[in-house]
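Reviewer 2 asked us to include a model.

Predict the structure of this chain.
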Amino acid sequence: MAECCVVLFGDFYCKTTFLDADLIFTILSGNRGFSGILDQTKMAAIKEKMGGKFENIAEMAKQAFTEISEHYDIRVEDEELIWRKVGGKIQLRLASIKLTPINFNDAQAEIINFLLGSGAKNKSKMAEIKHDLEKKTADLDKSVKINKELAVAQEESRESLLKQFVQILNTKKLRIRELESELNQIHKRVGPEAFEGSDKESDYDAATDDEEENDDFKDESNERKIGGGLKRKFENTFDDGEKCKSSEMNSSLEEGLFEDV
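Predicted model (C-alpha cells):
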C-alpha cells in the first residue's frame, strides 16, 4: 500500500503519494486544483544538474514533502511546483515540476477523504495506544504494589533471620565458654605437660628410654656395690665378733690364772 501525507505549505495543500521511487502530487491552491509527478527520470536529472553533490535525491524529496522544514522551500509559481534547497541566505533551486490543472472539487474531495480516513485511522490507533497505556499503567500499579509487598516481606524475613542468628550465636558462645571451662579444668588436673606437641612427646619418650637404660645400668652397679659392701661388712662383723670372743676367752683365762689363793 502506498504511503501518503498531506502538508500545508504556505497557502496551498499538497497531498504526496510515495509510489515506489516516484512522488505523485495533488495540490489545492486557492480555488484551483493541480496534479504533478516527480519520477526517477527527473530525480536523475536533478542529481546530474547538482554535479553529484547530493547522492540520494529520492530521500531528500521524501523528507522535503513529508513535513515543513527550514532546509527546504516549496511553493506554487505559474502552474509549477518549485522545490528549493535553503542554506542560510542562499536558496538553490532543485526542481521545477510542471503541474497539470484538474477539477478543484475532485482535488478537494481527494484530500478531504484522505484526511478523514487518516483521522479515523489515527483515532483507532489512539484508542489502541490508550488501551495499551491503560494496560501498562495497571501492570505498573500492580508491579509497584507487588514491589512494596516484597519489600515488607523482605524486611520481616530479615528481622526473623537476625533473631534466629542472634539465638544461634549466643548458643554457640555459651557452648564455647563451657568447652573452655572444661579445658581449663583438665589443664589443672593433668598439668600442661599433657597437652604438649607430639614432637616434644617423642623427644620426651626417647629421653625417658635412655634414662631407663641408664637407670638399669646404675641399678646393676649399685647391686654389685651393695652386695660387695654387705659382704665386706658381714666379714668385718664376723671378724670383729671372733676377735671379741677370743679377747673374752683370753681375759677369762688370764683371770683364772691370777685368782687369789
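The chain is about 65% helix and 20% strand. Residues 229-261 have pLDDT under 50 and may be disordered. We have added this to the supplementary material.
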